[in-house]
Structures are given as structure tokens and as C-alpha cells.
Amino acid sequence: MGEENPDSHVIGDLKKLSTPWKIALERANRIKNIDLGEGFILDLACGSGIQLAAYSFQLNKPCIGIEINSERAEIAKKSLNLILNNDFAKYSKIIIGDSLKKSEIKLDSDIRFSLIHLDPARPTDIQSHTLSEMQPPPIETLNLWKDLLIEKGAIILDLSPRLSKVQCKTLQNELAKILPNYEQTWEWSSQGRGRVDRLSVWLGSVASKNKSSRYVRNHPQNIEKSIIVEANKLPWDYSDSKLTDINVNIGDYISIIDPALISSGLEDIWLKSQKFEGVWIRKNGRRPLFVHSQKINHSRKEEGLIFESGIIRSIIKHDINEGVDPLIEIGNKLEMKKLTLRLKMMPELQPKFQSKLDKNLIDWGGIGFVIKLPDDRLAVCTKI
Ligand SMILES: C[S@@+](CC[C@H](N)C(=O)[O-])C[C@H]1O[C@@H](n2cnc3c(N)ncnc32)[C@H](O)[C@@H]1O
After folding, report:
1. Is the same domain home to 60 and 177?
2. Residue 259: is the preceding peptide bond cis (ω within 30°)?
3. Domain end residue (candidates: 206, 237, 268)
4. Domain final position from 237, 263, 298
């Protein structure tokens, strides 16, 4: 029998828990030019230490991480040793301990923090999360440690993107109660796969002035190219407006917009900034649909918040789970060489039907996609 690496289960756990290095660096990079004043960086639940090391590395400040799990704390020590080679590395340390038992954490009496980070643990195997499941609990923990922040100090609190709007609003109010002088900016960030990868609250000097919400679309290769949309309104402050009941027609332009942008409630502000006029016909699910009267220009597509854009060439009544024969017929009539299925269907059918479409369309001509309209009809679109 082969020898089992004693660290293997810890490393497995850590992969689930820890912040990917690129993301850790991206957020550290964004606060690099903010004057945070003099003080250590404190991570109250540092896990693998990746995020803490990224802050320390980018902000050139010494850091302290507290971690309750001794095996993870050992890994965090290794992360700091590996990543920090600046002069501050020698003042930085990882403490094995419980952030809720502040009096047991041995720190120099005059130590002060310029940035406190808290990324509490939450269950990894469930669909929705609640505030009470976070460990350590954010309000109690921040309340204990806030007095060690310097005047210009800042806090970054990571949350589950699966918290409901009601829970977010409750937390917003509780944070305002314990930190009344700290401005809050709520941030939804996405790596571009159509889902929110991280929800966080940025408080104090890292909050954006008079902007309570922020959407960040991380650019996969180049962090400088991240897209940031900001506004002074939070998603739970909007009343759910009814979507326009319009009759979509052949010749209309239609775009699938990033659903993560919609979670942040910033979609209309972004559309306005792009002078992109039209109406929403679907805002929920993986493929929100926006119908517009004008073709979008190339630079807008490059923004990466528009997943697909095209002109509707045909609309049919058809249940996609029954097959793609009608789509092959339409595709060939419209001289299309590729039609991508962008609609909800039984997952086991998707690859089968896509490959049938690919094989049966003529191998020259246009490229398009198929979507399902809110009234369940299918629209065949040519890409623009
Ligand atoms: C989501 S992970 C943090 C990941 C971290 N940001 C990283 O980059 O790896 C949350 C961590 O909080 C730790 N934790 C939970 N309760 C704690 C407490 N009371 N005091 C200190 N750490 C705690 C868990 O052991 C876990 O490692």
C-alpha cells in the first residue's frame, strides 16, 4: 500500500477554501494606490494565507493572520514565506487561534491595523447560504477587532454570493450600526462564466466614494483590463419592476447579457453608460435577454458583458427536447454553417443535438445561435 501524504486532505480542503492567487492579486492591486495610512494588515480567518500574502506583497505592509485550524495555519506560514520577500516579511506572522477570543491572541500592545480582512468559512455543499452559517460570524468578529483599526483604516469582508437580498440588507444595516463612520461599497465580482464568483463589502477608505455598489468583471489574462461598473444604489433598494411584455419580431436585435451583472443590480446603469437602448425581456436565469433596435458596435462586444448578440432571422414554435430537425432546415435555408444552442434543455441532449446541427449544416455561410424567448418560442439569430 502506498504511503498517504498526511497533508493531502488539508490541501484538498484548502483548494476549495482558498482564494485563487490571480484573484487575490487583482483585489490587492486595486487598493494599491489608496492611502491606507500606517499599520499592519490583519486577516481574521486567513486560511491558506493566500489573500493575506497578496495584500502584504502589493501594499508593502507587514501582516498578521489568525487561523483556528492548525494544519491550515502551517500552510499559511508557508504561503507567507514563499510570497513575501520584502523587509516586512520578518514582522509578519500567522497565529493559531480563535478570532472570537481576542484576549487569547498575543499581540504587541501598540499594534494597529490599516486593513482588516475577513473571509469567513461557509458550508461548501449547499445551494444557499445564510449569515448564521459563517465562521467566524462577521458582525461579532469585526465588532471585537474594530478598535485596533487606525483612523483611515479599511475593512474587506468576503461573503457568499449565495446570500439572499434580504440577508445582505440585514448585514448592511448591522455593519452600519457597528461601523457608523465607515462608507460601504458592496462588490459583485465575476470571472466571466456568467456567475458571481465573489460578493464582498469594502468599508472605509477602500469603499468607492458615494458608490454603494460595484460590479467587477475580472479579465482572465490581464487584470488591468477588468471592467468596473459602479453606482450609488444597491440591488435590494430597487423595487422589482415588471418586464415589458413586447412582441419580439424577426429583424429585432437581441443580446444575451452577463447574468452576474444583473445580480449586482447595475445592468441598467451600464446600459445607459453605453448608450445602449432597448428593453429587457428576461432578467433571470443564465441567459438574460435584451432586445434593441440598433446593432451594437464592436467595442461594446469587447467589453465582455455581452455574451452573444445577433439579429433574429426566424422564430418557431418547437420543443427543443424533441430534436433539431426544424433548426437544420431553417439553418440551411438561411445559409448558416454554425448554429450554437444557447437555451435550456435536458443536459444529456445538448452535446448530441449540437453535434447533429454541426454535421448537418452546410459548411459555408453565416454563424448564429438559437435562444428560447420568454414565451417558449425559439429564435434563430445571425451573429453580428
Ligand atoms: C474561507 S476560509 C479563508 C480563506 C482565505 N481567504 C484564503 O485566501 O485562503 C475561512 C477560514 O476561517 C477559519 N476560521 C473559522 N472560524 C475561525 C475563528 N473563530 N477564528 C479564526 N479562524 C477561523 C477556517 O478554519 C477557514 O480556514
Report:
1. yes
2. no
3. 237
4. 237
| Residue 265: CATH number of its domain | 3.30.2130
246: in domain: no
Same domain assignment for residues 233 and 261: no
Handedness of CA 189, 193, 197, 199 (dihedral sign): positive
What is this structure's pTM?
0.87
Range of the domain at 349: 253-383
Q: CB-based burial of residue 125 (10 Å sphere; 0-12 exposed, 13-18 middle, 19+ buried)?
A: exposed
What is the helix (H) or strand (E) element at residue 268, kind and residue range? helix 267-273
Q: Identify the pLDDT of residue 116.
A: 98
Distance 21 CA to ligand 1 centre (A): 16
For 53, residues 6+ apart whose C-beta sits below 8 A from its C-beta are 24, 63, 79, 80, 82, 83, 84
Q: Residue 80 in contact with residue 52, Cβ under 8 Å?
A: yes
**Count of CB atoms within 10 A of residue 142's CB?**
23
Number of domains in the chain: 2
Q: What's the CATH code of the domain at 198?
A: 3.40.50.150
**How far, CA to CA in Å, does 231 sit from each of 38, 258, 277?**
30, 17, 19
Question: Which residue has the CA at smallest separation from atom 12 of ligand 1?
Answer: 45
189 plus 217 within the same structural domain = yes
Q: What is the pLDDT of residue 293?
A: 84
What is the structure's pLDDT at 271? 87
Instruction: For residue 46, report the distance from its CA to the centre of ligand 1, in Å.
Output: 5
- Residues at CB less than 6 angstroms from ligand 1: 17-19, 45-48, 50-51, 66-69, 72, 98-100, 119-121, 135-136
- Residues of the chain with pLDDT below 50 are 1-7, 10-11
Q: Are 278 and 325 in contact (CB under 8 A)?
A: no
Ligand 1 centre distance from Cα of residue 186 (Å): 21
Spatial separation of the C-alpha atoms in residues 204 and 135, rounded to whole Å: 23
Are 21 and 56 members of one domain? yes
pLDDT tens-digit profile of 37-61? 999 999 999 999 999 999 999 999 9
Same domain, residue pair 198 and 145: yes
pLDDT of residue 8: 53
pLDDT of residue 2: 38
**Nearest CA to 35 among 53, 61, 65, 54?**
61
